[in-house]
Structure of short-chain-enoyl-CoA hydratase:
Amino acid sequence: MGKYEFYDLVLDGPIAIITLNRPDRLNTMGYGPWKEMAVIQDEIDAHREVRAVIIKAEGEHFCAGIDLKDLEKVDSYWVADNIAWLQRLYNRWQEMNAVSIAAVHGLCYGSGFELITCMDIRIASEDARFAIPEVRFGLSPDMGGSQRLPRLIGPGQAKRLILACEEIDAREAREIGFVEVVVPREQLYERALKMAKRIVNNPPWAVRFGKKAINASLDSSIAGGMLLEQIQSIFCCGTEDQKEAIRAFFEKRRPEFKER
C-alpha cells in the first residue's frame, strides 16, 4: 500500500478501511483529495479479495464539503474539462464489486454529502448533520446528488434539501431513508465493521449479483430487472459456494467460500 496525503488506507483481508484524514481542513474535498481517491479506488480494485469498503473520517467531522479555497480557483472551463471525470469518480463507488459502507459523524455537507449518496449503505452517529448547500453558493449539485438523492428519499424531500438547503440531523435522515442505521458516536466504527463482516461472510458471487441487481432496479424496467435475476440465479445455483453455504448451515459452522 502506498502512503497517502489525504487518506489512510488499511486492507484487512476482505475489508478495506478508508479514513478521510484531513481533520485540520474538516476533511474537505478538492482536486488533491479527488485525485488521490482515484488512486485508492485503483488499489482496492487491484485486490480482488476486497469485498467490503468502509469509509470513515478522522477528527470532529466527516466532511464539510468542498474546500472553498479550491472553489475560488475553479471556472467554467475547469468544470467543462473535469466534471465528467469527477462524476465517474463518485460513480465508481456504486459500480465496484465491493460493497461500500459510509460511517458518518459530525458534519456531512456538500461534496461529502454527494459522496455518501454513492455508498451502498450509510451508517450515522447520533451527532451527524447533513446538508447539500450548493444552491446557496449559486451552484447546483453536480456529482450525482440531484440524481441519486431523489432515488433515495423521493423527489419532494430531495427538492427540500437541495433547493431550500435545509440541514437535517441523523434522526431525520433515518426517518426519510437517507441513512440506514443510527448509533451513538462511540459505536459508529464498530457497527460499520460488524456490517462489513456480515457481508463478507456471505457467498461472494451472491453478494456481487445482489448489489448489481438492486442498482439496476433503479434505472431499468421490472421486466429488465427480472431478467437480471434469472441470469444471476442460473449462474449462482449449483456453484461450490452455494453448496458450501448450505452444508455449513446444517453443520453449524462458518462457511469457507472460494468464489467458485
Notes: The first strand starts at residue 7 and ends at 12. The two ends are 28 Å apart (CA to CA).
